[in-house]
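Students often ask why we bother predicting the structure of a whole assembly rather than each chain alone. The short answer is interfaces. A chain on its own may look different once its partners are present, and contacts between molecules only exist in the joint model. In this exercise we take two input lines together and write out one structure for the complete complex. Read the inputs first and try to guess which parts will touch.
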Amino acid sequence: MSKYTIGIDFGTESGRAVLVEVESGREVATAVYTYSNGVIDEKLPESGIPLEPDWALQDPEDYIRVFQNTIPQVLKQSGVDAGDVIGLGIDFTACTMLPTKMDGTPLCVLPEWRAAPHAWVKLWKHHAAQPEADKINAIARQMGQTWLNRYGGKISSEWFFSKALQILDEAPQVYAAADRLIEAADWVVWQLTGVETRNSCTAGYKAIWSKREGFPSKEYFGALHPQFADIIEEKMTYDIRPVGQKAGGLSQRAATWTGLKPGTAVAIANVDAHVAVPAATVTEPGRMVMIMGTSICHMVLGSGEHVVPGMCGYVEDGIIPGYFGYEAGQSCVGDHFAWFVEHCAPAAYQREAQARGMDIHQLLEEKAARMKPGESGLLALDWWNGNRSVLVDVDLSGLLLGATLATKAEEIYRTLIEATAFGTRVIVETFQQNGVPIHELVACGGLPEKNKLLMQIYADVTGRPLKVSTSSQTPALGSAMFGAVAAGETAGGYGSIYHAAQKMARLKDEVFMPVPEHQEVYDQLYEEYLRLHDYFGRGENDVMKRLKRIRADARG
Amino acid sequence: MSKYTIGIDFGTESGRAVLVEVESGREVATAVYTYSNGVIDEKLPESGIPLEPDWALQDPEDYIRVFQNTIPQVLKQSGVDAGDVIGLGIDFTACTMLPTKMDGTPLCVLPEWRAAPHAWVKLWKHHAAQPEADKINAIARQMGQTWLNRYGGKISSEWFFSKALQILDEAPQVYAAADRLIEAADWVVWQLTGVETRNSCTAGYKAIWSKREGFPSKEYFGALHPQFADIIEEKMTYDIRPVGQKAGGLSQRAATWTGLKPGTAVAIANVDAHVAVPAATVTEPGRMVMIMGTSICHMVLGSGEHVVPGMCGYVEDGIIPGYFGYEAGQSCVGDHFAWFVEHCAPAAYQREAQARGMDIHQLLEEKAARMKPGESGLLALDWWNGNRSVLVDVDLSGLLLGATLATKAEEIYRTLIEATAFGTRVIVETFQQNGVPIHELVACGGLPEKNKLLMQIYADVTGRPLKVSTSSQTPALGSAMFGAVAAGETAGGYGSIYHAAQKMARLKDEVFMPVPEHQEVYDQLYEEYLRLHDYFGRGENDVMKRLKRIRADARG
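Now the answer. The structure tokens for the assembled complex follow.
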């Protein structure tokens, strides 16, 4: 009798459940629930209280509705008996966090806090805590906090303590009323099991925790704000659980929501990007996973601890237990091509695409694929949305060089693709030079399915074979795999994520191999890229920052 | 009784006659004749002999047809009596040159040379003489020829001796059969008057002649090719006549073609750009004329001789007798905006323009005009077609910097306009720093009529008032003015081009004054422009040249 496991991936706009056969990894059924309140960035539901710019909230009840809607659906679609579902895993955007009462009740569902913006879930892309992030960084530097090195020297406004401190700064009464401050990832697991747990992935990547050093000191937190000194004891916990463990069994209440059996194993929570790593077959060092969508998240495992300058962070047990999980990122990839199509694709191409029943991206790819490396004479710096690794500088901006009156749209399009590939090569080489070797790339996410030219260019530019995950929903598959691990071997699952990956994760047969003649040209172009990268990115000519200042002045 | 004068402007595709009232400069009638053989760049007429790439020829009989068609037309349209037309002036593209027999018969009309490409008129944009230009420059440097300084250190493949040497190199029999090698400008005056003359403008700007030093030495010409040593004596003349003089009276034959009276005064020939200077009211130092179309030609008068680095050239008596005429240029202006609209204007804007019955340029201008200087955060180097002044380097290419995911098409459009204005400011300041002061700009050509934003930006960026010529056909008006000067005061014309300009040339009332708040921002942006200009343009980072080499290799 086949056993099944369910993975649930909480994204920005919706949640997705996938029911997977444990033995084979076959994805049997999928269901999606779009959050009824979506991303809340203009005004609060019901009260209509307006939000400031850069705010982005969510409604925690939407997350419960994901369980209530998608799990019954996948059971029904597949005809699988609830008794054959042995485990459940979830992954979430991060840092997405909320304040709750001691029993897990979100403050925002309580009538007295319903109209308080700070009582709601702060979504990962809530960017209004920049002053708090600046303070966190400045005081860390003043106090010589060595943990800054683990995060490329800078804590983001998106991360946990920036958001928590913003609550304290702007709504001290909400902060005081919050018994718990918790990642939404851990909160939904709490809702499933009735047990509060905290996972090592979000703690490590978003909340300055490490297995060896724990959290920053009370002294440090106190320096940020006197009432912040005891945040860990008061509203969080020192007990951080490695991913791959079981959080608990499904509660009676959650069984009612989902139609699953009470006691079904629920895994410790995970982050959407990181959980995709084993789903892309990677459970060992040397093979970098790239989640390629609007941006790229790069993840690679290392056997030891290495400070790699300019990366997003590294966390022991953060991705796969027993390894250091290293993370890097590029902030503008799919977004880059989308920008180009919206703002620069000429009308004639739009007409041609329409006449041929193609997507404009397909048409541009087709035209761009006819060209040889170097043939456009163009070069770009892929900083349309700043640089996340290795320069870690949001104030950098895009550059296109080499244009002539003969330059065509597809040449610019191809150049933007190449620029993002050069950006990835900088990351790969920086890891390699700092003790984290990489000999193969594994791609997953939305882009690899759509654009073969892009895949070939990444292989050619990095000089490494590039493989592609078979699953088009790797985060959900990864969560399902962790569900099977939480269930354990005796229940028909797996003893570890390594074993689960061997059976359940798969790559496509097609491998993109670097073409030596392409590599030769791209090596020359990369040298030019690096020179411009350092000239504009490392302080020799800060024109990009000065232009942003002039722009800010002009806008008043 | 009113007197009249006719100016004829020979362009790339057609010739245009304007009949003008001498006293007021009022343009009474205009007629255009489109060359029946146009630009010959694929195969010769009749014989069908194919041409190599980069060739561009014309048919000299088309020029005669301009006289035969347009002059009778303007007489008819205006009802002016031929006896009241006192003078005739012409201007031409340059260097546009041809080989003829001693009596002026073009070689290409003779049956024995009809199928020889080198026997035809070489149009200004014939670019196949680059090897000859390279040789001219290399040997000049070897031999320490000081005249190179007059031309920014480089002779163009478009100029007279490059083209003449190509005839000798590739078709020695045509070279031998040519009794005369002559600018088309001078050739059409010869056809009108029966007298061969050579004008100081084309000789100075295109044929390395100067009033004080004459032509390069026989020794130098001989070093290019033994048979080239005596080119001046054999096929040209040392007798160069300043513009503003009378070439002769209309011949009986030309009177028959045109319907004008035999003996009507014909002026010494002129170049289309340079002849526009007095038509734009400028006959004294300090006011720079910009002919703004696909490219910009900048002209300013100076009282003394100054070597201004990186300019196209300066010629004593070259524009206005008694002054040094300084010329500079930008190779990509209107072309730049046309490129943008063709290759980068998004489909949505094309639809909006169509729906509102506007030209897409107008729409982009409207949107761009809503922005403040510096508000886009963008900066560009306007080198899409290389740099003609002051870097004199065709291998430079375009750069756009500062793009973000929020960058809109109109912001890029405005930035390209600003970049061309910064390019003009570099020229203005280089003149100023080298003893040729400029306190005002006067624009003419196609662009100023169309784009007020562009005019304001040029005023703001250069910090100088910008005025616009009233005439939309300044070259033809200028030629007509020189016709009135050739006729002289006694015939009802003018004693000098200064007097003619005072009476016949006019500027629009609207003056674009620099706005101090704009200047402040543009001064900051100009500083950034200059730094990038020097970094990429003066050898610190030759990435643009290396990309062009990589491109050439890739194209095989």
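Check your guess against this: Chain B touches chain A through 54 residues (CB under 8 Å).
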